[in-house]
Amino acid sequence: MASRPHFFGVYHWRERLPRIAAAAVLLWAAVVAYRRGGRTLRAVAVGVAAGALYRGGDAARRLCSPAPWALDRAKYDALGSILSLEDADRVLDVGCGSGRSIVGLAPSLPDGTTVVGLDPFDDRVILGNGPALARHNGALAGVDVSPVAGDAARLPLADGSVDAVTACRVLHDVPEERRAAAFAELRRVCADDGVVGLLELPITPDGVDDHVAYWRGCLEDAGLTVERVATVERPTREGTYVAVAATPA
Fold it and tell me: Where, by residue number, does the polypeptide cross the bilayer (predicted)?
């Protein structure tokens, strides 16, 4: 029996849907002008239509990147392979969103693990984002998810209360002035014998070129010892993901 597909929501919809709508309006206007105009107006209409199709198509392509059902498991496999999760009873996934990272890491989690999925759970970035969707996608992957609304820089968990903390493609969205606080929070809630796993994009502050060294340094500055590092090629864009496993120093 085929497994049910996941739905992870539509990313960056607030920026891209208006562009698609604007392109559709321009295309409609160009069609009307072409039907009613003379030779010159028709030539202009063709140019406008071509531009609208290009801009609308580009926005639609970006709207579906990543596709709402896609996982791109390679990057999660890379992170899972360098983490020691076989004894993890309780895992915190920071910035879980609709559950994509939880589903990606599910094969690395032992049976019976509870994942606390923390996220603001608003739709500013992901259309459809919410605790119910995170819980649903986790269940499809065989993972018990307990969603918690919260802020990465002020985690609503007790000190040392989880066996592992993961943060996948999320901390680059934390404002730079609050980023150190977020990393300190990862360290605070992780048990002394636990592990922190980071998966990040090649995004760094201005003037910083080496994203691997940057994200590694963020963990070390928070009092964590980096144990293993892996990089994974991005399938559709330049640069690499970096996966880092660190333990409390």
Answer: none
- Rounded Cα distance between 197 and 17, Å, is 33
CA atoms of 207 and 40, how far apart (whole Å) = 50
Q: Is residue 1, in this structure, part of any structural domain at all?
A: no
Residues 81 and 151 in one domain: yes
d(CA 77, CA 5): 19
Helix 211-221, helix 176-189: angle, nearest 10: 60
> Is the pTM of the predicted complex or chain greater than 0.70?
yes
236 & 117 share domain = yes
Q: How far apart are CA 28 and CA 1, in angstroms?
A: 44
> Could you give the 3-state DSSP secondary structure of residue 74?
helix
Which SS3 state, helix, strand or coil, does residue 75 take?
helix
Is residue 145 located within the same domain as residue 241?
Answer: yes
Amino acid identity, position 229: V
Question: What is the span of the domain harbouring residue 59?
Answer: 10-63
pLDDT tens, per residue, the chain with 249 residues: 345 678 787 776 777 888 889 999 999 999 999 998 888 999 999 999 999 999 989 888 877 777 778 888 999 999 999 998 999 999 999 999 999 999 999 999 999 999 999 999 887 767 777 899 999 999 999 999 999 999 999 999 999 999 999 999 999 999 999 999 999 999 999 999 999 999 999 999 999 999 999 999 999 999 999 999 999 999 878 899 999 999 997
The residue among 65, 69, 80 whose CA lies nearest residue 15 is 65
Query: Looking at the domain assignment, is residue 44 inside a domain?
Result: yes
What tokens appear for 92 in the block?
């915190």
- Alpha-carbon Rg for the chain in angstroms: 22
